[in-house]
Hints:
Layout: H1 14-23, H2 30-39, H3 46-55, H4 59-67, H5 76-111, E1 116-118, H6 120-127, E2 138-142, H7 148-157, E3 161-166, E4 169-171, H8 178-187, E5 192-194, E6 200-204, H9 216-221, E7 224-227, E8 232-235, H10 238-251, H11 257-267, H12 274-283, H13 287-301, H14 314-324, H15 330-339, H16 356-364, H17 371-375, H18 381-404
Parallel strand pairs: 2-6
Antiparallel strand pairs: 1-2, 3-4, 3-5, 5-6, 7-8
Helix pairs in contact: 1-2, 3-5, 4-5, 10-11, 10-12, 11-13, 12-13, 13-14
Amino acid sequence: MLAVQAEKQVSLSQAGVQLLLLTSRPALTGAQQAAASSLTPKVADWAPFMDTALRKHALPMVYNNLARQMNSPPPDEALAMLRLLSVRATATILQRHAAFDWFHENCIIPSGVTYAYLKGPALAARFYPDPTQRFFRDVDILVPRPSRGALLRFLQDRGCRVIHLTERGSEFPDLQKASALAEYLFVTPVPHVLTPQGLVVELHPEIDLQTSLFDTAELLAKSIEMPTKRHIIKVLPDIEHVVFTFYHHSRHLWSKLNWVADLDAICNHPRLDLAAASECARKLKIDSTFAAALELHQLTAAGHYPTDSDPASPGLDLLRACIDGLPGDLALEQEMRKGQRLNVIGFAWQPMPVSAWRHAWLRLRKFRPTYEDLQYFPHGRIPRYAAAGLLRLSRGIKSLVAHAWR
């Protein structure tokens, strides 16, 4: 059997990259099937091909598209391994969906909280022909900021645990006292909870803390109901959801293949008004990012591989970033951002969508003391906040100086 490499990453061939980008989508058109049939015989590096598809959360879609190729399917050994890995990955996706159903039924519905789901299962339910095609690692839910405390209490009563992610790993802070919970919420922008099934849920007071472009109250008021197999859930309104998705994935350099699949599912959705989404992006001053994402969709849908002779364009910048990120994961993405000296939003063609004063204020929020900072100073609430704030500020200044000298 072919061994899928887990630790040592091997670079993919050009044909492998092209085939991977082409097949990371819910389904192929006739032209794409023809292109995939011409690429498949050129791929010899099936082990890293499968490893990348698995790590980047697109393997079931890749397998389904390759298995339908009658003219030039992958070698039998590779196809058998693809099928095995696809079955395992699909089982994981189904487990995540089951955990999400439990969370919605036992936590969100009875809590009565105002909410809207975004990304992950919300995108899958709204835009994918088969929601189980789309892998999601966690669940993101938008809730009013004042509702977070009561909701966290309610979730804890239902068996969920507040989970705090640190560089050392996962911690479960004791927040039984009202003062402890209030303190935690004061210094934690996005609380995380862990369901009994092991699904992480993020409670967002706004969908983008970097720029605060999107109005939380407006998004919640315009949320739409979407049927799933078991429930009716509320998700972000389509236009804003699509604009945010393109913006979010671009900020993260399209480092996951299920995000490439999101592009295809969204752009091919029959009821989506892309012109209205483009106008929304223009009003938010992120239209350059939106247009670049549409260009990226055209390039990946055609199986394009960038060359030195290609004229420079924003879509090609995103495509190159996506390809460069295939060998690694979050650490590589962070190194790429540092190495390319990307601005707050990303590339030079992505202007800052908020004023300089607003940007400065948003940056200052990064110097807010963290929950870990508070643990250094266990007594006296006001002195704790002051001391922790100074600690955070000193670390931030050191970081800025180090960045300036790179």
